[in-house]
Write a structure and sequence with these properties.
By secondary structure, the chain is mainly beta. The chain has one helix at residues 2-18, and strands at 28-43, 50-69, 72-90, 95-99, 103-114, 121-133, 149-161, 166-176, 189-201. It has a single domain (2-201), classed as Porin (Beta Barrel), CATH 2.40.160. An eight-stranded antiparallel barrel has the order 1-2-3-5-6-7-8-9. Residues 1-24 have low confidence and may be disordered.
Length: 202
Amino acid sequence: MKQFICACLFLLGSVVAFSQSEIGKKKSTYGIYMGLNHSDLTVKELPTNAVILTGLGFQLGILTDFHYKNWLSFSPKAELSFNTANIDIANSTTTETYQVMPVNVGLIGHLKFKIPNNRLEPYVYVGPHYRLSLTQNTGSSSEFPTESGLSFDIGIGTTKVLEHFAFAPELRYSHGFGNVNGNPLIQNTTYHNLSLIFNFLR
């Protein structure tokens, strides 16, 4: 895991170092992003002795914007996300915690629709988001790996071009479709999250 995180950080630095030329005149822009997320779970049949606990996590990633028109671009992204979504199952003497999608790699393809403006460039986007779970099965009877899953993203944001880079805060909602459950005590679990993201583009 440490090697994977180091590789991601290296890629982030490389994107910034090698991205050149002025932002509004390029056919593509590159960047990094980081943000906070809040997890949400939908469980088909939650046991009576179980409770869902969710909280804040964070993510970081790299992106490219391919500009087709001044109002349309395609934005593929790769991100590493740390999430807080647990299901606590109470037994007679102990409580078992099942972590749902605690760490995942996201492979994302967003179609972005922009409103050209001299000062701010508001935009909305939609697209698929595949979450590759990095959860390992420890061998314990109370811990189970989370399955990978497909989500659909929708988001809004705005881009402000500064002297040396562009800053783009955005709000993203990711709605899960597939069952990511790996715990035999739970019937069906779908993972969603809401993210506040800060993009830095060159």
